[in-house]
Structure formats: C-alpha cells, structure tokens
Amino acid sequence: MSSQILKLAGKLGLSPDQEKDFLEAMQAGNRSRSALVITPRAPEGYVPPVPADAVSRPWSHPRVVVPPEGETEAKPGSLPDYGHGFYYPLDLSSVWETAPLEHLPFRPERCLDMCASPGGKSILAQARVAPGEHIANEVHPRRLGILRHNLLRCGFLNLYTQRLRPDQWAEQAPGCFDLILADAPCSGQSLLAKGIPNPGCFHPAATGGNAKRQRGILLAALQCLAPGGFLLYTTCTYAPEENERNVLYLLKRHPELETVSVPELEPFHSGLTEEACYRLMPFHGAGAGGFTCLLHKKGEKPPRPPRADELLAWPIHAMGSQVS
Length: 324
Fold this sequence. Notes:
This protein is an alpha/beta fold and 324 residues long. The chain has helices spanning 3-9, 16-28, 80-83, 92-97, 120-129, 141-154, 166-172, 204-224, 244-253; strands spanning 34-38, 64-65, 87-91, 110-113, 133-137, 159-162, 177-183, 225-235, 257-259, 278-280, 290-297, 314-315. Helix content is 28%, strand content 18%. The longest helix is centred in the middle third of the chain and has 21 residues, at 204-224. Mean pLDDT is 93; it is low at 318-324.
C-alpha cells in the first residue's frame, strides 16, 4: 500500500473501521457494481436479460436495474440487447451521484451537460428529470464521437451535442440554463477500487492540477446558470481538493449559492463539511465510489434569455431512426 493512499485515507474524515475498509477495498480492486439504465429504445415493459438485485436503494430509479453482486453471467455490454440500445450499462456509483436531481422543484427547461462523454450522466438526467432541451457537450473530438454513438444507440429524441470549451459556453450562453451537470474531469482515484491501474492519481500534482481545472469549469458553468437554477457537481475521485474544497470555494466566491440537502443520501454525508456534500466510498457496496453536491443559485427564475441557434447545430434526434 503506497504512502500516498495511506495519507489520503487519513484526510477523508473516516472512522478507524471505515479507514481500514477503505484501504482493503483499494487493495482488493473489485468494488465495481454494474447498473443498467433502460433507454427509450427499449420496448414497453422491457426486462433486461440479467437477474435484478432485490436490494432496495432509495436513491435509485425505476428505470435502473442492478444485477446481483458477483453476477457471473455474460457481461451486459456483450449481450445483443446492448447493441440494440435497450439499456446503457455504467457503474452503480453514477446512479448514486445523480440522485440529487430528484429534488429539483421543476422540470428543467434547458440542461447543459458540460463534460458529457461517454454519456452516462446525460442518460441518467433524461431518466430522472427529462429536460425539455438538453445539450451534451464534449470538447475532445474522439470522446464526442463516443458520446454521440451512445446517445444515438439509446434512442434519445430531444438531445443535442456540442464541443465548446467552458469559457466559450460562458461567453455564448450566459444565464441560459436552469440545470447544468458538471461531471468534471478528475484524478479518477476510484478506478483503483475497480482494479484499473491509474498511476500518479494520488500525487499532489495530479489532485491539485485537477482541482484547478475543475474550478475553472465550475466558474464557467455558473455564468451559464440562470437565477433559480441548479448545478450538479460530481466526480469519481476521493481527494478533498477535488470535491468538498471546490464546493466551499464556490460558496465563498458566490454568496448567491447554497447546497441542497438530499435526505436519501444523508447516510453518505461527508465528514469534512457541514454543507450538503455526499461521498460514496467503495466499502458502501454500491460501486467504486464518487462525490456529489447539488448547488442552487438563489433568486427568482427569470424568463429564458435568447439562446443562439448554432448551439443546437448537432441534434441527436435527426439520426435516431437510423440506429437499430
């Protein structure tokens, strides 16, 4: 066990038993849990060809199916129904991270997923709140291709894609969105809990560099957020610099922001702050782990400002019927 992992474990606000469980999980590398999101492509009443776990999870969703832990049948991504687009597989942690969306007081008129590839958070947002207009953004061309392929395969009808940088969004769409998803690029420390090597992910240069980039993304996102709107910030890493400290940075810099309590996530409340920040750890049995915080921009919801038509230049629905 590296000294950097041991040092991180001591910074997470865990009890001695939890710290031991965390270190064991990181060493075991087998804490990934699969979940399947049923898509619009699936026939009415569709049941995936995998058994469903009987565990009740108050933060899950009816369109999410969780195979039993340790399921040894064929991987969901290798089955024909995956190719047909009937479901989208992801780590159960992602389902947990999007649970705060259930607490929005309205159906979002406009949603921007600022760091969308490969598409899981956009797909979960569609399942949970079905935004009226949804733009999934990815700046890297190759990842944009993966994103479009996944959304097309799953049969979504009201999605668009874009490839703008965060600063370009801030310039071109100020105050245009009432929901923004920021699943920010991070050090990806939870990959180790899945058994996937990720050299250097605990080094201060990695966590510090990612935290700085995340703050830039979040500050740009806030410029795009309308008063009364919501920003969901999520990561798949454990470092406080990339999680709670970023939230506290935003709250200090933007007094119009507040965190939103999520009752079903209270068992996961971070021990590092009294704000409504939640941590899923690999010893919780619901995936490799993650962080989530829903931020509300206080103020009366104004009329939607104009939005440039070119931001909707790459619709998904125009090609959806070509996917089989």
